[in-house]
Design brief:
The protein folds into 2 domains: 8-94, P-loop containing nucleotide triphosphate hydrolases (Rossmann fold, 3-Layer(aba) Sandwich), CATH 3.40.50; 135-167, no CATH class. Helices cover 34% and strands 15% of the residues. It is built from 7 helices and 6 strands, in the order βαβββαβαβαααα. The chain has a 4-stranded parallel sheet with strand order 2-1-5-6, with helices on one face. The protein has a two-stranded antiparallel ribbon with strand order 3-4. α3 links the parallel β5 (58-61) and β6 (90-93). The longest helix is centred in the middle third of the chain and has 11 residues, at 101-111. The chain is globular.
């Protein structure tokens, strides 16, 4: 999109410290995150007003199912994305299948892990385009070992839960 002259910015990309992910967004303008005071800490959240003021052609906003910090304009990131889209800004986002409301229980039953942040099916169904990314179990486990999914400590935990291979 950038190579075609599009004005592309990063609103939120959760790299989780992975250098390979950082490399993928190198050279793309990053919008600053907004500080949101919450209890005794300050959370970094997507700055919806900053994105609307910047008005790029396309914005990258990771983690569609994310719950925003209390006090944000919308409780969910998918609602932020809807506001961006209604103002004429195209959005590319990501979501894991277990976060779709209609699949949440089924995927939780298969994996043994239930996630509580979900996206209404209507939001997903309203997408102009969906790209499914799927990997064979062995490839996913290899990527996990190489630190391409989570950093080492998270990866160790995930290998015994989310990414356990059935024997």
């Amino acid at each position: 999109m950038r190579e075609q002259g599009g004005d592309v910015v990063t609103g939120v990309v959760e790299t989780h410290g992975r250098s390979e992910t950082e490399a993928l967004i190198a050279g793309i303008e990053r919008l600053p995150m907004k500080d949101v005071p919450y209890r005794d800490r300050v959370l970094k959240e997507f700055d919806l007003d900053g994105a609307l003021a910047r008005r790029p052609t396309l914005i990258l906003v990771d983690e569609l199912a994310h719950s925003n910090a209390p006090g944000s304009r919308h409780p969910k990131r998918w609602q932020d994305i809807q506001e961006l889209q209604s103002s004429g800004i195209d959005v590319w986002t990501t979501v894991n299948v277990q976060h779709l409301e209609s699949l949440n229980e089924a995927v939780g039953g298969i994996t043994g892990i239930r996630v509580w942040e979900t996206v209404p099916d209507a939001v997903f169904d309203g997408a102009n385009e969906v790209v499914l990314v799927d990997l064979p179990a062995d490839e996913l486990l290899r990527r996990l070992r190489e630190g391409k999914v989570y950093l080492p400590e998270q990866a160790r935990h995930a290998r015994g839960t989310s990414f356990a291979r059935e024997t």
